[in-house]
Structures are given as C-alpha cells and as structure tokens.
Amino acid sequence: MKLFSLTLVAVVGFFLDSSDGKKYDVKVLTGNRAKAGTDANVYLILFGTKRNSSESQLTRKFVNNFEQGNQDHFEVETADLGARIEKIRIRHDNSGVAPGWFLQEVRVTDEERHITFWFPCDRWLATGEGDGKTSVDLPLDRFEEEKEEKKG
C-alpha cells in the first residue's frame, strides 16, 4: 500500500509541474576568475510562493556552458510557481575533468509577468574549494518589474 501512495505522489507531482507550461528565463553568470568554469552537469530547482519546480538540468546542445566570465541563458518550463520565486537550489554533479565552479549570480525572469528575480552567490561550488559543497540554496535578494512603455 505504501508503494502505491508513493507512486501516486510522483504522478501527481508530474502533472502539477508540467500542466500549464509557464516559461522562466534563467541567466547564470559564472565568475571571472581563474578556473571558475565547470565541466559538470548543472541542475536547478525554483521555489515559488505557490509551489516548487522539479529539478531541471541546465544544458544547451553544442554549447560549452558555465565557462569563466560567461552568461548562459536557459528556459525552464514548469507550472506557475506563484507571484514570486523566493529561493533557488543550484548544484552540480561533480563530473567532468574540471568540475569546480565559481557561481557569481543567477537571475530568473518570469516572462509572463516581466519580473526578474536576483539570486547572488559569489562562491565556489567545488569539493576542493570553500566549504567543499557542490550545492547551494540561494534566497531571493531582490526583484524588479519591467515597466511597459506607454505609446502616446
């Protein structure tokens, strides 16, 4: 019986996460310092006021993402997370030749509401640097709503 309830939760979670297909633009800024880039796979969870997203791998085909000084853009499609994204969890799997990563900042834009949420990090996600962790929860620092220009 317990197995059935766990399966049901997973299925319900899947439908909640993909049902209304809201798009969030994610900009990831890698620090501009020596060996700041990573070859590891990077994953993100968005925590909203209404619900959380499932974990998404941030990747683009034929692009070397998360290199020193780069700004990488991704689109995450999930259910509407609510009025505000309050926190994100970003991590990597410590794979590849050079997995250590200095993450400067993540910006998430709600494309429908035209609101950008800032999540500064300014730290290493690396087993051999700082606290040795490859995952971090980042609280919302600030947000800004784009003003629409009035046509007269």
Describe the structure.
The structure is a single chain. The protein is mainly β. It has one helix spanning 2-18; strands spanning 22-30, 42-48, 56-58, 71-78, 85-92, 101-110, 115-125, 135-139, 142-145. A five-stranded antiparallel beta sheet has the order 4-1-6-7-9. The chain has a four-stranded antiparallel beta sheet with strand order 3-2-5-8, with no helix packed on it. Strand 6 and strand 7 form a beta hairpin. The chain starts with a helix and ends in a 7-residue tail after the last strand. The model is unreliable at 1-19 (pLDDT under 50).
Which keywords apply here?
single chain, 152 residues, mainly beta, 5-stranded antiparallel sheet, 4-stranded antiparallel sheet, 1 helix, 11% helix, globular, disordered N terminus
